[in-house]
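Input structure tokens:
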């Protein structure tokens, strides 16, 4: 009787765990690179995107979904649910000659899903650290990684960055041939089909497309070679000037861009078809988003109209991106969410949607927006939202702070002898396309919001990313980026404290507006003596 009793307890526990695991929905995050607000046929683009369109028609359009203005910060915010400025990855992307990544004290979203019984896979562009194994996808919660550590590796073999091959599977260099957009989709589909069907899965597919360099299969280039560039001005002076110069010389990036987007849509169709054929549409949440607004300058080819600006600035065209979420049978099709939602909200929102417990220790900056998505319940902002970019010119900062009513766009241009500040104030609720600058009529609001930006920027670690568009003098790239990585067992166990560790708190206070010396330390924490170089304490 005792044996039978324990046997039935075991069987009950086993099946309970199995039911709990398989009843949770799968997660698929499709992140595309530099796609413009108007660059899907659902919004009138002059090229074909039926598969992307289907996510909007069959799901909810996230009409006020915000990301950072550039690549690595968006990916850091997505993975952690935290403000990338605090992480030291805000002003610029992680360049090949940099040795930084996201601090290993930071908890990544796939780590939580993995700890909750999910199998996890990533297919595409990482761009969150490459120099040390600790920074790699397989160390940040992904069971399986197929793709590139860098950006701009090109769309065709040998997929090189700075002349060094950058294509791997779980830390091993591979030599797969073909067009990268299709390779990523095909590998993701193979992984879905070979998955453990008794466990839910978390899949992240950050495509390279449609980032430059704009390369596409020849048939698609021919398909769009006569496409006219009819884009309207972005109302960003620098971007419009660069585009005008290109058009004056008789060249436009628009036809090649259209070909790259068409291929991207076909690849997304491969993944969607795999999910449908596997019979798991009703148990799979699919989030689609661009990592920032489209690149509208001369070589970019994107269109964000009617939004103002584009990648790298802090107008809406840079930070308000094309995004949708689909869960067949759960989310009402062809609906829209007009509330503000940011890339930092994804982690807590998907955790709520799946019912998993988040395993983060540090406080998240994102909100759980699931009730807003599912039931259109109003979820007010708790705090203002901030973004910044120093791309492409060192010392030229594009910043913003906004809420549901006001938005300040501040540009700080510095040289060795002067600093110039340009403030533009918009009532973003009434003027979403940023036509009416109200700064001169509301100096008190400008002053208040500019002070908020100053205090916020002071949280950025001074050792964080800056816009170093060229490598240090004499630096050479590796022949193989996989070999460039320092293995985990060759690294010391503790994070390096740097020089002058005994005086860090004093030096940190002296820096004031320059940023933080001590990682992830706020002013109020310093006053209470809670900050030191070991942020886990």
């Amino acid at each position: 009787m005792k044996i039978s009793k324990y046997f039935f307890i075991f069987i009950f526990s086993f099946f309970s765990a199995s039911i709990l695991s398989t009843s949770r929905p799968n997660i698929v995050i499709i992140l595309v690179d530099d796609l413009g607000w108007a660059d899907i046929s659902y919004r009138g683009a002059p090229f074909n995107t039926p598969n992307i369109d289907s996510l909007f028609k069959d799901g909810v359009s996230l009409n006020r979904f915000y990301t950072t203005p550039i690549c690595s910060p968006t990916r850091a915010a997505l993975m952690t649910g935290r403000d990338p400025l605090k992480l030291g990855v805000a002003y610029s992307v992680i360049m090949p000659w940099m040795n930084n990544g996201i601090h290993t004290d930071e908890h990544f979203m796939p780590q939580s899903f993995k700890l909750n019984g999910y199998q996890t896979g990533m297919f595409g562009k990482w761009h969150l650290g490459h120099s040390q194994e600790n920074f790699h996808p397989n160390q940040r919660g992904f069971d399986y990684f197929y793709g590139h550590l860098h950006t701009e590796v090109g769309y065709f073999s040998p997929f090189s960055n700075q002349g060094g091959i950058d294509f791997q599977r779980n830390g091993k260099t591979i030599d797969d041939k073909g067009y990268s957009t299709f390779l990523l989709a095909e590998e993701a589909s193979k992984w879905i089909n070979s998955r453990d069907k008794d466990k839910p899965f978390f899949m992240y597919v950050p495509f390279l497309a449609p980032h430059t360099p704009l390369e596409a299969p020849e048939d698609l280039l021919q398909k769009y070679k006569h496409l006219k560039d009819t884009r309207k001005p972005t109302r960003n002076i620098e971007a419009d000037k660069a585009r005008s110069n290109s058009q004056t010389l008789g060249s436009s990036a628009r036809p090649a861009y259209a070909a790259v987007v068409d291929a991207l849509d076909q690849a997304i169709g491969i993944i969607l078809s795999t999910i449908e054929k596997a019979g798991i549409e009703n148990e799979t949440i699919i989030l689609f988003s661009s990592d920032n607004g489209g690149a509208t300058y001369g070589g970019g080819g994107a269109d964000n109209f009617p939004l103002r600006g584009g990648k790298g600035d802090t107008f809406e065209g840079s930070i308000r991106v094309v995004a949708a979420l689909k869960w067949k049978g759960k989310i009402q099709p062809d609906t829209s969410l007009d509330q503000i939602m940011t890339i930092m909200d994804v982690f807590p929102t998907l955790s709520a949607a799946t019912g998993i417990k988040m395993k983060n220790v540090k406080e998240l900056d994102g909100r759980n927006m699931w009730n807003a998505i599912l039931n259109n319940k109003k979820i007010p902002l708790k705090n203002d939202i901030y973004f910044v970019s120093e791309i492409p010119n060192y010392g030229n900062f594009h910043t913003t702070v906004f809420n549901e009513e006001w938005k300040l766009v501040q540009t700080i241009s510095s040289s060795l002898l002067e600093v110039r500040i340009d403030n533009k104030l918009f009532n973003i609720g009434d003027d979403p396309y940023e036509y009416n600058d109200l700064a001169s009529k509301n100096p008190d609001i400008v002053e208040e919001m500019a002070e908020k930006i100053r205090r916020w920027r002071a949280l950025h670690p001074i050792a964080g990313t800056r816009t170093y568009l060229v490598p240090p003098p004499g630096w050479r790239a590796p022949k193989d980026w996989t070999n460039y990585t320092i293995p985990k067992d060759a690294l010391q166990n503790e994070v390096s404290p740097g020089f002058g560790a005994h005086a860090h708190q004093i030096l940190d206070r002296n820096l004031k507006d320059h940023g933080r010396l001590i990682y992830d330390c706020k002013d109020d924490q310093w006053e209470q003596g809670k900050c030191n170089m070991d942020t886990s304490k």
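The radius of gyration is 23 Å. Residues 82 and 479 are 34 Å apart (CA to CA).
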